[in-house]
Amino acid sequence: MSYINYSKKKNNIALIDCNSFYVSCERLFNPKIINKPVVVLSNNDGCVISRSTEAKKIGIKMGEPYFKVKDLVKKNDVQIFSSNYALYGDISRRVMKVIKEFSDKMEIYSIDEAFISLAFVENQRLNEYGKEIRKKILKWTGIPTSIGIANTKTLSKVANYIAKKNKTGVIVLDKEKDIDEELKKFDISNIWGVGKQLSKLYMKNNIDTAYKLKNISNTWVKKNTNVLGAKTVMELRGIPCVELQTIEPKRKSCCVSRSFGKKVENIEKLKESITTHCLSAAEKIRGEDQVAKTITISIRTSPFDRHREYYSNSITIDLPIATNNSIELIKAATEGLIAIYKYGYFYQKSGITLSNLNDAGKEEFNLLAPLLETKSKSLMKAIDLTNTKYGRNSISIAQAGVSNSWKMRREHFSKIDTASFDSLPMLKI
DNA sequence: TCTGGGGTCCTAGGACCC
DNA sequence: TCTGGGGTCCTAGGACCC
User: Fold this and answer.
1) What is the number of domains present in chain A?
2) Interatomic CA–C1' length for residue A321 and nucleotide C14, angstroms
3) For chain A, how far is it from start to end, CA to CA, in angstroms?
4) pLDDT score of A302
């Protein structure tokens, strides 16, 4: 087709993705569960968020509420774990460090996957190079991975998906014929960037495979979707539109939210939770030396409860001076909470979002700012240092509460801490 | 009967990702 | 009984201006 331009430069992007990442992390410290069905649950032991191959085979679906699969779990002796993000974050850093050795152009895309540029590798050597990467990651961290290599990010996602499904480890898609063959078998809804709504639209128009989408007219895509839709199509054609992001941009917002272990009616308990969220969000942005100009507070009841009326509300407050001071943020958040709280509801979740983030010190000039800052800066610094040294929440403030009634459920927590000597990975090499 | 036009900026909400 | 959490980007539409 004439509108497709295949005269593209060689890019060779590899997507390295850890297999069942959270499950693999738990297995590192617990070799007994290696060939067994294993799942990791989300916060509050709410949903299934990671499954071993064995668990997938049994029919446990991604994102399913835990209580719905309890029967399957019992019948098949599935091993259950509450999520341990401190552990996963730590293992992730180790994996990324190994990957970095294979290319100087790298983008960490999520906790368990990274894109790297392999433009410097000859095409006929790509497969072999990919295998080397896998081998080294497995050897040095114990984590199994899958690797997809192609000329665009979207195609490397496709290749990775196939590598994972087929258990081949590495898939290189660099020949037009092979690509088309695979795209003909590739379901439209599995394409990176095609979610529920776009799938629906495409299906309605009889576009049910990646191949059909690749060959759709530019006019049609531009008319019926947005720029992202158009980019996806170009990328399927092998024309890079989504660049590798080699320098990590500073975050633009910071959100901390949690569901409660038990429903909450009382505003005092909500205050405790909001205060706790403010403390951790403030700590996070201080860690990146940022200040926030805006804070949003939100609360809601359970959207799944059919017997009670649903209530959800949020309020956004513009702060007079951009800050990362916990006390200031808590003050504003508490006022916001009072404004949106309604008596008589059973709340299930609360959260805060800090936005309009800027580098500290770079914020617009304000006569009052320097005064307030020096006073509180050293206090916040001291708190952060103490919490780093003696563990999270060593220093908190009274309003964060000590009662446990609303706090998280974690009944299957593995209690592994990679900082402690006792729980070094048990590697079989 | 006739009721401007064009531009920018901001925000809320939607869609998507892992 | 029990349904996660943390991000980004895009667009439509309102507010405002001349």
Assistant:
1) 1
2) 27
3) 51
4) 94
Answer yes or no: is A268 within a domain. Answer: yes
Q: Is residue A356 part of a domain?
A: yes
Residue–nucleotide distance: A296 CA to C14 C1' (Å):
21
* Nucleotide showing the shortest C1' distance to residue A21 CA: B18
Distance from residue A117's CA to nucleotide C17's C1', rounded to whole Å: 48
Q: Give the HSE-up count for residue A296: Cα atoms under 13 Å, Cβ half-sphere.
A: 15
Chain C positions with an atom below 7 A of a protein C-beta are 1-11
Give the integer Cα–Cα distance in Å for A424 and A333: 41
Considering the domain boundaries, does residue A306 fall inside one?
yes
Is residue A187 a part of any domain in this protein? no
Measured CA to C1', the nucleotide nearest A195 is B16
Measuring alpha carbon to C1', the residue closest to nucleotide B14 is A197
Which of A360, A382, A387 lies closest to A373, judged by CA?
Answer: A360
Structure token pair of residue A27: 């297995």
Q: Which parts of the protein come within 7 Å of strand B, by CB position?
A: A 109-113, 157, 191-199, 316
Report in angstroms the alpha-carbon separations of A51 from A69, A109, A381: 12, 20, 40
Closest residue (CA) to C1' of nucleotide C4 is A42
For position A359, which CATH number holds?
A: 3.30.1490.100
- The parent domain of residue A286 ranges over 254-400
Closest nucleotide to A110, Cα to C1': B18
pLDDT confidence tier of residue A417, bands split at 50, 70 and 90? confident
User: What's the pLDDT score for residue A424?
Assistant: 59
Question: Which sign, positive or negative, has the C-alpha torsion A330, A334, A335, A336?
Answer: positive
> Regarding predicted confidence, which is higher, A407 or A170?
A170
